[in-house]
Amino acid sequence: MSNLLKNGLFRRFVSILLLIVIWGVVSKLVGDKVILPSPNDVLESIKYHASEDLFHHVYITLFRVFTAFFLAMIIGSAIGIVMGRKKKLDDYFDGWLILALNIPALVTIILCFIWFGLNEVAAVLAVAINKIPTVTVILREGTKAIDEKLVEVGKLYNKSRFEITKDILVPQLFPYFISAARSGLALIWKIVLVVELLGRSNGVGFKINEFFSMFDTTSILAYTLVFVLIIMSIEWFLVKPTEKKLTEWRL
Amino acid sequence: MNELNIEIKKKVFPLKTQNKQSINLIFKNLNFTIKRGQFVSFFGPSGCGKTTLLNIISGLDKNFDGWVKKYNQASHTSYMFQNPRLFPWLTAIENIKYPIKKKKNSEKIANNLLKKIGLEKYKNQYPNRLSGGMQRRISMARAFAPNPNILLLDEPFISIDKKISNSLRKLLIQLWRRNKPIIIFVTHDLDEAIELADRIIFLSNLPSKILLDYKVNLSRPRNQNSKNFISLKRLLSSTTKTVKTKK
What is the ipTM for the molecules in this complex? Predict the structure, then answer.
């Protein structure tokens, strides 16, 4: 046993198991399904919903998450890089950025629905607008930290602006892209659920609202758990390996 | 045959001290020409504008009054900086290939240079995993990769072990001899200047002027402990002192 505990992966496994046991004990003590269903109830509920329309709604939500994510990453990075490189633009638009950072997600969502109607475009746009300022801030800091001395090497060998961006700027910005992507994914799926709850008739958020009106805690936890697991697997099997591959040059 | 002609009428550097803007005059009427294949050392105290001079010649600094004339139209200028300035995300060989990436035979040229600098074994290593001396070798190989007509070196061997800097100087002479580009080597170490250069240009404090332009007639390889070397060093340090006091 103590030998096994030396293995990092095993320790993680034990910790998750412990969490489930605690959950089971607490739910037993509470003894009310509406307040806290047991792990077993939730598992049964997942099985039931999976045979119904769970994956249909999960798929729709995932699609919204990724569209909004890529939109926010591309637009946010572009603005961040420009602001980081051009001092004047940074001075002009820094105030706008702080304003955008402080607008509550709920306000952007409602405004988007008012302006563009209760449709898919408004939903995705509302989520992306919420995330863009944070991506911008992270990439702006990254751009300011760029080593100009390495950029000079590119200029010395007559590389074009595009080549310098691709070969010298982007590799230096990579850790910042990853950090923006990581926090982005976590934030975006939470906002997508709110958007679905307010103005869509499908997706995980819509279903959770439906279960809320029936006080069906078990189904709420079943949907949440499935979605959290999907987002976690994206982190483990996509973001982490990419990060490892692209930053292996670091000590 | 002249290949490089430099006339700097005026170069200033804005200085900001306690919110007061002042202007520092670095060069005024600094003119010189360099012949093809010549190894020139610029020797002077630190802060006399040596790095600025190299930045002007390389074209990185265009903010000055005057001109840099390169007679060979297809002239390539390479630069080995004070720090190796390798790209940490590229391997040793990728770093060497960087200036000539578009050429078809870049792989072959880089492999050849790796062999010359004795780092074939480390070709796929990232710079962070190599010692300071190795990084400088790679940086030197990268500077030679585009087969430059003009190669600028900005005190590339300071702050490293004496033994390593000795071997790096030997390597530099070896690589230079293959195609004999003009070398402009900036240093504040007189021994280094005498060991390497055909010609030493002594610079004064700011605003920097040429104190002495001396042709070195010692045969290579030069030994810092030989009699001729030591007497030349004595001669040069005493003449520059008298020139300085006269001016």
Answer: 0.85
